[in-house]
Specification:
Blueprint: E1 8-11, H1 26-29, E2 30-32, H2 36-52, E3 56-59, H3 73-77, E4 83-86, H4 89-109, E5 113-115, H5 118-127, H6 135-138, H7 156-167, H8 171-175, H9 199-214, E6 221-225, H10 231-238, E7 242-247, H11 250-262, E8 269-273, E9 283-289, H12 300-310, E10 311-323, H13 326-333, H14 338-342, H15 352-361, E11 364-371, H16 373-389, H17 391-396, H18 401-419, E12 424-432
Parallel strand pairs: 3-4, 6-7, 6-9, 7-8, 9-10
Antiparallel strand pairs: 1-2, 4-5, 10-12, 11-12
Helix pairs in contact: 2-4, 4-18, 5-18, 9-10, 16-18
């Protein structure tokens, strides 16, 4: 992965950590330039915040070693809080002083800190995100956060480049941690907590609920926006639907075509490399699973206008979307984050308010809305645990230790967001406003609203 290189200080000292490739990871291999004042402020703010939170900190210790502080009698009754171990406190504070949460993530990638319970630690931080920085400093947020780079804008060319950076990494990489259905979105489990043996059935349950919402059956003309690796198209074709599914990922399209042929439904499914803005025609049903997060706020009106244009009279749109609270979405929309820099360039998670506003403006009415946040937390846990177990196989594919730490942090960070209720995931049904009936939200076991 290549990222832009801002002015930087000399390369970070090794301190026993694995070497970092400066060509591939320039902003991880080098410490950023940060004034002594900003570094000192970061150290003071974090020390005060951590002292008030249910977590513990350890200073020093070799990389990979995460000793737990001595526990007292209370810890034998109540589980001890997660531990943040700083292997290089000076580098940790300097990165955060320079780049905030981007620096926090890059410090983990560099091996400068660890935790005995990464998800637990991140869940604490996500739960108390509004308390980490004192109110007077929050008003100065614009002075130190970075703006999203213009190159990440989801123009026709930009969207293809952004999708390529994540989804074209390697089909073999995704196959190492996804379930056999190769489904890269939240499952809906029958019971929680989830078990690995129930994973594929839970993914099929999610897909079937979406197909049911859209009314997909024999003869349905279905448009899927965002192919993934083809599982939804396969299940829709197995119902007798005629499917057009579009993607911007060449790697995903190649594997989806193979899987569709192996399932014996290639006569019912077309897989095209095409942007949703370039699709023509009218369809009885339109389904899109966790694709709106890659659209970008600037293009949400265009996206919902496309949905309205593409759904035939009497048809329905079924969406699955990750959401976050509206105020946090507004802050994130203006900010270049660690996730947008390294994992999902150009992406933005919408709020329920934004979804309602943009869909209504396009002439669509929401008739069903169900949340499954707890199910996404379990989905991410299973992915993360499998990814960690497969670390040697991931390395054999050519992904180095920095990539492994980046991906583990991404999965843990996302899981923590759902466990802290910072994030949710929802299944929505939309129809043309003139054919709408009153919405009837419905929940499932473990659902959230």
């Amino acid at each position: 992965m290549t990222v832009s290189v801002p002015p930087a200080a000399p390369r970070v000292a090794a301190l026993g950590r694995p070497p970092v490739d400066p060509e591939r990871w320039p902003d991880v291999a080098r410490l950023p330039r940060a004034s002594a004042l900003r570094t000192a402020v970061a150290r003071r703010v974090l020390a005060r915040a951590f002292a008030r939170l249910p977590l513990r900190t350890n200073l020093g210790g070799p990389p990979g070693a995460v000793p737990r502080p001595t526990t007292g009698e209370a810890d034998r009754v109540t589980p001890a809080p997660p531990v943040l171990t700083l292997h290089d406190p000076a580098a940790f504070h300097r990165r955060i002083g320079a780049d905030g949460l981007i620096g926090f993530g890059e410090s983990y990638m560099a091996g400068e800190w660890d935790s005995d319970d990464l998800v637990g630690l991140l869940t604490v931080l996500a739960t108390h995100v509004d308390d980490l920085v004192p109110a007077p400093l929050r008003r100065l947020r614009g002075a130190w956060v970075r703006r999203r780079p213009a190159r990440d804008l989801n123009t026709l060319e930009g969207a293809r480049a952004n999708i390529h950076r994540h989804y074209d990494l390697s089909n073999d990489l995704f196959a190492r941690f996804l379930d056999p259905s190769m489904t890269y979105s939240s499952a809906v489990f029958d019971t929680l907590p989830a078990t690995p043996g129930a994973f594929t059935a839970a993914q099929h349950r999610k897909i079937d609920r979406l197909l049911d919402l859209a009314g997909v059956g024999p003869g349905t003309r279905l448009l899927e926006i965002g192919t993934g690796w083809g599982e939804l198209a396969i299940r829709a074709a197995s119902r007798g639907a005629d499917v057009l599914t579009v993607t911007l990922s060449e790697e995903q399209r190649a594997l989806a075509l193979r899987r569709i042929a192996e399932a014996g439904v290639e006569h019912r499914v077309r897989v095209e490399l095409r942007d949703y803005r370039q699709v023509e025609g009218r369809y009885d049903a339109v389904v899109s699973v966790e694709m709106i997060e890659a659209v970008g706020a600037e293009y949400w009106p265009t996206y919902f206008e496309a949905l309205r244009r593409l759904v035939a009279p009497g048809g329905a749109v079924a969406l699955q979307a990750i959401t976050m609270p509206h105020e946090r979405m507004l802050h994130t929309a203006r900010t270049h984050t660690w996730i947008s820099k390294y994992v999902f360039p150009g992406g933005l998670i919408p709020s329920p308010d934004a979804l309602a506003h943009e869909s209504a403006a396009a002439g669509l009415t929401l008739t069903h809305d169900t949340g499954y946040g707890a199910h996404y937390a379990e989905t991410l846990r299973l992915w993360r645990e499998t990814f960690v177990r497969e670390s040697a196989a991931v390395e054999a594919l050519g992904f180095d230790r920095v990539f492994h730490r980046m991906w583990e942090l991404y999965l843990a960070y996302s899981e923590a967001g759902f466990r802290a209720h910072y994030l949710d995931v929802r299944q929505l049904r939309l129809v043309a406003a003139e054919q709408a009936e009153p919405a009837e939200p419905a929940d499932c076991p473990g659902a959230s609203r």
